[in-house]
Design brief:
- The complex is a heterodimer.
- By secondary structure, chain A is mainly alpha-helical.
- Chain A has one domain.
- Chain A contains 15 helices and two strands.
- Chain B is α/β, with parallel strands linked by helices.
- In chain B, helix 3 runs parallel beside helix 4 and helix 5 packs parallel to helix 6.
- The chains are: A mainly alpha, B alpha/beta.
- The interface between A and B is large, with 57 and 59 residues.
Chain lengths: 354, 413
């Protein structure tokens, strides 16, 4: 037991050091690394519902977009009139001072974590009674509806989009912005990972699994499934909101359907990444998101115009050859490395029987 | 578990090595080439206009390179462009701008297609102090953010259809008109809408229908049904290429009678070819038309440009291509005046730009928008089945008289 822990320690400290050193080692790739952190967070939180609880949600993008708009709105609204900021005809130019910028984004991120969690609780109360594809379709509608609604609200820029505050000009170092957002997202990644790992060792996960495997039985055992489903979703929303807030600041421009409530891309990617890596595992979404991001950044530009065809092929390959994801595939191939004991005699006996 | 960890660590270090070796960035000027970068929509909802833009850039690069290139400090350089596909997505565009600057080492940028994407890229180029000459981001809000490295060769979006409202009021004997309008929910179209609101206020006109259309729009029947019922004097529609095509298709299907129809993006949609007589009398805002009499030494005039473009790409150039070509001419001019590859020197030279191109006069205002060139309006007119865009306003360039009101569908053959 101790030995395993030591190994874990080496692995984790190695990864953290790599994460801390990454923006200096690959200075030019900071933005991509920030994306990677956010993608992993999205995949891991999706996995809580899709993998552990068996509820395939397309609605997590709602919290992501909500977080994005909230952070930016708070960051602007704390110091300037929001309506004048977003009105494109406004000839006034507002500039955040350095202190205002960081205070704003700090408070903004706080709000963008709490509000989506509350929204998740409210919506969850209403729709988590649905099961299977009814739930999936219902959540699919959430993201689309949110995009259309946001596109009609004038105070957050409506169809014009919302330009988030530029990084303070007083900081001369052009690398500072990239580093700031990278470390923010890296901190979020660590926070999310620690939280999910904690859940993996808790009774909460067993309850989620019970819901996935047989919800009626779980209920018959005396578990208040509704309560746990809602809490699970609120946890995901908390981290998705933060991820959205960071992305909004990084991208610098929020568009209702293409950036914030981007169900067609981010909403699908988070599902795809979790499945690619192996849903229902701790490391699956991490590995899936990393591979996916490398695939996307590496190949995307080489096959200009055909990238979505390639993505389609990738989805087909994953679903046909790795239905359990990479982790599931590895687990099937090398079960002993996952701590599964195989009775050799029994296995041979089964083979002979065939 | 042990082996798995080892495998994991090995693969991470392999990736690390690979990335480190990649990080060495290229220079802004490689040998005889000045490298420009651009993220363009080759896929997604702006793909057709993205290709128009790219064709415009390529046409100008070929022409300038063929005619001797750019002379800086006595040496001749050629232009080269690195393209990425931004998938018509602002998030992707911002990321690619970062990539062009940080990984490909690009020091001068050309704009993407559409206001939304330009809005996403501008904060990035601004942060790294990269001069960007853009030809397809017209939204007014681009020019009120105090950007110092953004230069647009086109007129701002709110000017697109203001003239049309003035025309309608003029035809109405100076009295205000009743306006029905429908705009796509994107940065550009919403800005056109603001222009109309201003014009309506100025002329005392009344807006009776003010609809928003979804992105990727393929249907506006609900708006048209309202138009049929309320009979406004003017119908204004803006929603890029798809908006123009959808409007004409459904107006002709539903036989909506309206005295005046004003739109944007008619030439990018090749309206007169695609819909022929159905599109007749539509009034369109345009940045450029081949019949204008501007001239420069690279492309000659508009007619010659159109002919060469037709030969190269097989279709008549929409204004999106023309303005994109003009962006390269601006860059060439600025490099030669700066006589240096220093970014700030080039930026200062861009500020002082004052030139005529086949596309129009170019002089940048304090926000970076082109203040030297008016918008024009043309109307689709047909002879038999052969339809053409004719310039009707402003009067200086007008080749034809504005036809008003549009005859009813029952009277059209």
């Amino acid at each position: 037991m101790n030995k395993v822990k030591q190994k874990d320690l080496i692995l984790y400290s190695g990864l953290i050091i790599l994460g801390l050193a990454a923006p200096f080692l690959f200075s030019a790739f900071k933005v991509q690394l920030t994306y990677l952190c956010v993608l992993i967070v999205l995949a891991m939180t999706w996995n809580l519902q899709g993998g552990e609880m068996g509820y395939n949600t397309f609605g997590n993008i709602l919290f992501y977009g909500l977080g994005m708009y909230l952070t930016a709105s708070v960051q602007v609204g704390m110091f300037f009139p929001l309506a004048e900021w977003t009105e494109s005809g406004g000839e006034k130019t507002f500039v955040h001072t350095t202190a205002q910028y960081f205070q704003g984004i700090g408070v903004g991120l706080l709000v963008s974590a709490i509000v989506p969690a509350i929204v998740a609780g409210a919506i969850g109360y209403a729709i988590l009674g649905l099961r299977g594809h009814y739930f999936a379709i219902c959540t699919l509608g959430l993201g689309i509806a949110a995009g259309e609604i946001a596109g009609g609200i004038e105070i957050i820029g409506a169809g014009q989009g919302f330009t988030t505050p530029p990084f303070p000009a007083e900081i001369v170092d052009t690398e500072a912005r990239g580093k700031f957002f990278y470390f923010l997202s890296f901190a979020l990644l660590i926070g999310t990972f620690v939280f999910v790992k904690y859940i993996y060792g808790s009774r909460f996960r067993l309850i989620l699994n019970a819901i996935r495997d047989n919800e009626d039985k779980a209920e018959a055992m005396g578990i208040q499934t509704m309560k746990y489903k809602i809490v699970g979703w609120m946890c995901s929303a908390f981290f998705c909101g933060l991820a959205g807030g960071i992305m909004g600041g990084l991208i610098g421009y929020i568009d209702s359907t293409d950036v914030a409530f981007d169900g067609r891309e981010m909403g699908v990617f988070m599902v795809l990444m979790a499945i690619l890596g192996g849903k229902g595992t701790l490391w699956g979404p991490v590995i899936g998101a990393t591979l996916f991001h490398f695939f996307k950044e590496g190949l995307w530009t080489l096959i200009l115009g055909w990238q979505y065809v390639a993505l389609g092929v990738l989805i087909v390959v994953i679903v046909v050859y790795f239905p359990e994801g990479l982790m599931g595939w590895l687990r099937e191939k090398y079960p002993e490395r996952f701590g599964e004991v195989i009775d050799e005699k029994d296995r041979k006996a089964q083979v002979e029987l065939k | 578990m042990n082996k798995l960890v080892k495998l994991f660590i090995t693969s991470i270090s392999a990736i690390t090595l690979a990335l480190v070796s990649f990080t060495s960035s290229f220079a802004k000027v490689e040998g005889d080439y000045i490298v420009l970068g651009s993220a363009i929509s080759l896929t997604g909802k702006y793909s057709s206009n993205g290709v128009h833009t790219q064709n415009g850039y390529n046409m100008a690069v070929d022409r300038i390179n063929k005619m001797g290139g750019v002379e800086v400090q006595g040496k001749k350089y050629k232009f080269e462009i690195i393209y990425y596909d931004d998938e018509s997505n602002p998030k992707r565009a911002a990321q690619l701008a970062e990539r062009l600057i940080k990984q490909d080492g690009v020091h001068y940028m050309l704009g993407p297609y559409s206001s939304g994407l330009t809005k996403a890229i501008a904060p990035v180029t601004e942060k790294y102090k990269i001069p960007m000459v853009e030809a397809n981001g017209a939204s007014r809000s681009l020019f009120t953010k105090g950007y110092k490295y953004l230069f647009a060769v086109l007129s701002p979006a709110n000017q697109y259809l203001e003239v049309a409202i003035d025309l309608a009021v003029e035809k109405n004997g100076g009295k205000g008109v009743r306006i029905a309008q429908a705009f796509e929910q994107d940065a550009f179209s919403q800005d056109v809408r603001l222009g109309i609101l201003d014009a309506a206020k100025r002329t005392g006109s009344e807006i009776i229908i003010d609809d928003k259309l979804p992105k990727e729009l393929n249907d506006m029947a609900a708006t048209l049904a309202k138009v049929k019922a309320t009979k406004p004097d003017v119908l204004v529609v803006s929603g890029h290429t798809k908006g123009a095509l959808t409007a004409i298709r459904q107006i002709s299907e539903m036989k909506v009678d309206v005295p005046m129809l004003a739109m944007t993006h008619c030439d990018a949609a090749k309206l007169s070819k695609q819909h022929g007589k159905k599109s007749e009398y539509a009034l369109c805002a345009s940045q450029w038309h081949k019949n204008l009499s501007y001239k420069d030494k690279f492309f000659g005039g508009g007619k010659k440009y159109a002919k060469d473009f037709q030969k190269e790409f097989g279709y008549d150039p929409p204004y999106q291509s023309a303005e994109s070509s003009a962006a390269l001419l601006v860059f060439k001019d600025a490099f030669e005046r700066a006589n240096s590859f220093d970014r700030d020197a080039v930026r200062d030279a861009l500020v002082d730009t004052e030139m005529q191109t086949f596309y129009g006069n170019i002089k940048f205002g304090p926000g970076g928008q082109n203040v030297a060139k008016p918008m024009i309006l043309f109307q689709v007119r047909c002879k038999g089945d052969d339809c053409e865009n004719r310039v009707v306003a402003p009067t200086k360039w007008a080749s034809d008289k504005f036809y008003h009101p549009i005859p009813k569908w029952s009277e059209r053959s």
